[in-house]
Amino acid sequence: MKNNATATWLEPEEFQVLADEYRLTREPSADRTFSIPFTDLLNPERSEAYFRGVSGIFETDSQSAAVSLFAKRYAFLVIASNLYAMSCFNKGLNLALDNGWIESCYQGQAWLPKARLKDWQASEPQANQRSEWRNLVLERMFAGNLSRVWNAVSKTARISKALLWENTAIYVYWLYEEKFAEGAGPEQQRRMEEDYHYLLHDAPPRLFGESRNPLKQFDSPKVFRDGYDKPLRVRKTCCLYYLTSDEPGDYCPTCPKQT
C-alpha cells in the first residue's frame, strides 16, 4: 500500500450491496464461453473471437454495435462497484486490469455480466490523505484498466474511442446523479457530491490515461425532448443501439441522431 492508503477488507454487508446492486461476484459463472479475464481484451485474436460471440448475444450483424453494447456493460462492471465503495464506504477496490474476470450472467433475457476479482484486499485513506488516496483508486481503475482496454478495443473492432469513453461517462453521470444517493446518509452524500464534482471538473487527465478528462469532455447541459418529462443530457456520439433493434429508427432517448 502507498503511504496515504491503508489495507482493509469489505465487510460482509458491504460486499452484499455491491453484489446485489453493482454486479460484483465471488463466484465463477457456469458459462465459461463468455467469461474471460479482463486482460483478454488486450489480445486482438482473443477479443475479436469474443466479440463475434457477443454479436450473437445481441442478435446483430454489426460488430461495431455489439462492441459498443458490450463496452457499456464492461464500463459498468468496472466502475460501478468501485465508485460506490469509494464514495459510500470510503474504501477502494483493486480494479486493476490483471485482477479481474468478466463473469457471464443473464438476468431474464438480458445479458448482464459481473466482475470477479482475484485479490479482494481493499484500501482506505489514511488521516487527511483522502484526496491522494482517491487519485490512486481512480488512476488504477481508469488509466490502468479502462483506458488500456478502450485503446485496444478501438483498434481491434475499428470503433471510435470517443464512443467507448462516452459509454463510460453516461454511467458515471447516472450513478452519481440518480443511483448512489439511494439510502445514503449525510456523510455519504457529502462524499458523493465531493467525489462527483472532482471527477467532472478537477480530476486531471492522467487519472484517465488520456490527454483530456473524458467525463468533463462529454458533460453537457440537460435539455427537454418531446415525450420526456425530465431533461436529458444528449450524447455527443451514437452508441449504435439502433442497429440491434428490430424497430427502424429505434434510437435511445439521448441519441444525437434523434431529432
What report would you give on this structure?
This protein has helices at residues 12-22, 44-57, 63-89, 130-156, 161-179, 186-202, 214-217, and strands at 5-8, 24-25, 36-37, 100-103, 106-107, 110-111, 114-117, 122-125. With 259 residues, the protein is α+β, with helices and mostly antiparallel strands. The strands form 3 sheets. It has a 4-stranded mixed beta sheet with strand order 2-7-4-3. Strands 1-8 form a two-stranded antiparallel ribbon. Strands 5-6 form a two-stranded antiparallel ribbon.
SSE topology:
Layout: E1 5-8, H1 12-22, E2 24-25, E3 36-37, H2 44-57, H3 63-89, E4 100-103, E5 106-107, E6 110-111, E7 114-117, E8 122-125, H4 130-156, H5 161-179, H6 186-202, H7 214-217
Parallel strand pairs: 2-7
Antiparallel strand pairs: 1-8, 3-4, 4-7, 5-6
Helix pairs in contact: 1-3, 2-3, 3-4, 3-5, 3-6
Domain Aerobactin siderophore biosynthesis IucA/IucC-like C-terminal: 68-201
InterPro entries: FhuF_C (IPR024726), IucA/IucC-like_C (IPR022770)
Domain Ferric siderophore reductase C-terminal: 235-257
